[in-house]
Amino acid sequence: MVSRARSSGENMIEQSNVQTDPLQFDGINSGQSNPATEVNNTRKRVRGPTTMKSIWGQPEGERIKGISEKNKANQNQKKLVQTTGKESYALVRERKRAELGHEPSRMDMFIECHSKKDENRTPSTVEAANYMAQMHEKREKLSEGSQDLPAENDILSQVVGKDKYGRVRMYGLGVSQSDVWGQIPSRKQSQRIAMEWKENCEQMEERFNNRIDELKSMFLRHRGREESQSDACSPATSINHRPQMTSTQLPRPFRVRDVVCLKSIMNPSETVAKGIIQSIDPSTEVGGKSLGRIGA
Predict the structure, then answer these.
(1) Which residues form a coiled coil (predicted)?
(2) Are residues 94 and 175 in the same domain?
(3) Phi-psi region of 170 (alpha: psi -120 to 50; beta: other; left: phi over 0)
(4) Are 194 and 209 contained in the same domain?
């Protein structure tokens, strides 16, 4: 019994020694970090200065009033105000296409998107009104039959200015210049295209000159045959067999406003042109030269 009590007492002493051993919990002696020591030594973070207290500290009415005045000031700085609201450029373009019957130009789109919805279609701002006046003036100077197609130098670009890189006015986001008016050739490509056109023009001119030479030779051969046939006839025979024409059979002299027909040299039965005589006065000038007398 004594031995058992002694052994149990020794066990209790050993357990107490294990629990109070500083080597297992002292971070300095054991070489391990102590979490409790780190928490105590950590510096408390302090938030820097902020303006939120001054903003939210104002009365609600003054805060809203300040925001409203700032928005008004920003709105007054805008030169152009779009009046289509949430309607996209694609919808406006489709509606304008149905109204005009053809693809609207960028000028038409600008006027549609920057005009008020009243009866007179008043421009939204003074700057928009000035742009529209300049556009109408340039459109009136276009030649008859020409159209203001979307291009790099159309009326809108001439008045408002060139488009920024990768953007096209009146088409919205995602549309580039190459999508609207095609790929713009570089300087080297432009030079190559110009050289090709020059070569083609020279070839066409050469073929045209060759054709003219062929027609001239054909005309000379035909004229030579006619002269040879006329020389083969004797003068006596030609005089004796020449039909006598009466005064009624003689051709009537030309008069003003007579309709005349020009016959082909190669084929006398073929009419190549028709015209109306405007004057038979030899002193009348046409193209800087007088008509002169017949046979002169």
Answers:
(1) 187-218
(2) yes
(3) left
(4) yes
